[in-house]
Amino acid sequence: MNLLEIAHVPALCVSPDSTVMQAIEASLPTRVGAVAVVEGDALVGIFTERDVMLKVVHGKRDAETTRMHEVMTAPVIHIVPTLAPREVLSLMLDKHIRHLPICKDGVRVDGMLSIRNLLQFLVNDLTENLHHMQNFVGADSPGG
Questions:
Q1: Structural domains in the chain plus CATH codes
Q2: Nearest CA to 33 among 17, 49, 21?
Q3: What residues are paired with 8 via a beta bridge?
Q4: pLDDT tens, 84-96?
Q5: Given phi > 0 = left and psi -120 to 50 = alpha, else beta, which region is 40?
Q6: Using CB atoms within 10 A of its CB, is residue 4 exposed (0-12), middle (13-18) or buried (19+)?
Q7: Residue 58: what are its φ and ψ, rounded to 5°?
């Protein structure tokens, strides 16, 4: 499984000099709760809904003038697209992370994985496995 199949692709990216308001306005149509902060092609931070609340609102900062580099979370934990979904879920739960950038090369952002997308995938996978098990156990004759 490639995690990019269930992630938001392409990830929404802003520069470190973008304002909070620019990041919020860019993210609203996508309904994704996090933007990657990139300089050139390199991931340098992440800005999430939690950052808005804790660093901007609670910090009484002006969203029109505050720059990403002032309030982004850095360094950023990121993942490669080939990790197992259950391994990623453990990481997200252990670190209290709701969004993870996916970087094939460890530098450039290829997608943004949300815990919601990951949980939906895992629920669908478990449901499918349960259905197969029920069919197997419910088979009433040898061979099927």
A1: 3-138 (3.10.580.10)
A2: 49
A3: 112
A4: 999 999 999 999 9
A5: left
A6: middle
A7: -65, -30
CA atoms within 13 A on the CB side of 121: 18
**Which residue, among 74, 81, 77, 73, has the nearest Cα to 103 in the 3D structure?**
81
pTM for this structure? 0.85
Write down how long the chain is. Answer: 144
Q: SS3 breakdown of the chain: % helix, strand, coil, rounded to 5?
A: 40, 20, 40
Q: Residues 75-108, buried b or exposed e (16+ Cβ, 10 A)?
A: ebebbebebebeebeeebeeeebbbbbbbeeeeb
- Residue 72's nearest CA partner among 29, 27, 19, 114 is 19
User: Which residue blocks in 2-111 are alpha helix, DSSP H?
Assistant: 20-27, 49-51, 68-71, 85-95
Q: What is the pLDDT of residue 140?
A: 64
Q: How far apart are CA 57 and CA 76, in angstroms?
A: 22
Q: What is the CA radius of gyration of the chain?
A: 19
